[in-house]
Design goal:
It contains eight helices and 15 strands. With 321 residues, the protein is α+β, with helices and mostly antiparallel strands. A hairpin with a 3-residue loop joins strand 5 and strand 6.
């Protein structure tokens, strides 16, 4: 049964937005969540469904909010091509493209890597590591491309998970960042937790959070405005490289969440170059190598791949300015 709440606008609520009124009267839900509920048709007034979150309310109006019961979701197999670089009976290593979400979540219930894996692996993957994230032992951000290892059975899942927990896997990333890091090589330390000012972001926090360590080194300068760095992780926190590099003032190129494109760079571009740059629709971060012990045979496995074409094209553009 759906939970239902009601709130009546008072004299002092005259002409405020509907989503703001509801945020005052419904505890435990953010204003953005309430706005989404309004747009989904979950709010009524005098028997009429209201879908305009910006509606200006009048004193005396009573609004009813129905909170849909959360439904258990089991991802379905989807025939989505995968670039697999290694596979055996226990695991597979693949090259995830930018733009693919790893596992289903709110707003992304299909088209994910999990949907593709369920189709590729069939019943053998069912339930490994949990129904909603079968086979997944680590993840990459949606717009981060590169190598991932996936478990195909419980033995592999436990063995790989233990290596991730012990930070004994070797993982290296290449990132195109603004500016040149100073010093050119080093170790970034700083606990990472949810940003207190923006819940969509992570941040280096003074209290709480989880310890995070990133080793970086300059690979090459790219033109006047950017450089390429290699980052090797000792820990695996959400957005770790993006957060740590931004704290040094070297935001990953294309990362609108943690930085912005320098205006001085945009000013020197021709119209054609600006159009080309604006067509780069991801952040320039790529997981280019991964190494681990095979959980069954204990053989050392190491994989490496090249930068995707869109990052190479970005580098060619940056070298010209």
């Amino acid at each position: 049964m759906n939970d239902q709440f009601s709130i009546t606008a008072q004299d002092h609520d005259k002409n405020i937005r509907l989503d703001k009124l509801l945020s005052k009267g419904v505890s435990g839900l953010s204003r953005s969540r309430l706005k989404a509920l309004i747009e989904e048709g979950c709010v009524t007034q005098s028997g009429e469904t209201i879908t305009d979150a910006s509606l200006r309310v009048k004193p005396g109006q009573t609004f009813y909010v129905k909170i849909p019961v959360a439904k258990d979701y089991e991802p379905e197999p989807e025939n989505i091509p995968l670039e697999i670089v290694y596979e055996d009976d226990d695991l597979l290593v693949l090259n995830k493209p930018a733009g693919m979400v790893v596992h289903p979540a709110a707003g992304n219930y299909d088209g994910t890597l999990v949907n593709a894996l369920l189709y590729h692996c069939g019943d053998s993957l069912s339930g490994v590591g949990g129904v909603k994230r079968p086979g997944i032992v680590h993840r990459l951000d949606k717009e981060t491309s590169g190598l991932m290892v996936v478990a195909k059975n419980d033995i592999a899942h436990v063995g790989l998970s233990e290596q991730f927990a012990a930070h004994s896997l070797e993982r290296a990333y290449l990132a195109v960042v603004w500016g040149c890091p100073d010093p050119k090589e080093g170790r970034i330390e700083g606990n990472i937790g949810r940003s207190p000012s923006n819940r969509k972001k992570m941040a280096v926090v003074g209290r709480g959070g989880k310890e995070a360590y990133t080793n970086y080194r300059l690979v090459q300068n790219i033109g006047y405005y950017a450089s390429m760095v290699e980052c090797r992780l000792e820990t695996g926190r959400t957005h770790q490289i993006r957060v740590h590099m931004s704290t040094k003032g070297n935001t990953v190129v294309g990362d609108a969440l943690y930085g912005r494109t320098p205006s001085r760079f945009l000013r020197v571009l021709s119209d054609a170059q600006k159009a080309e740059f604006c067509s780069f629709s991801r952040h320039a971060l790529h997981a280019y190598s991964i190494g681990f012990l095979h959980p069954r045979t204990q053989e050392e496995l190491f994989f490496k791949n090249k930068l995707p074409i869109e990052i190479n094209n970005l580098i060619d553009l940056l070298k010209k300015v």
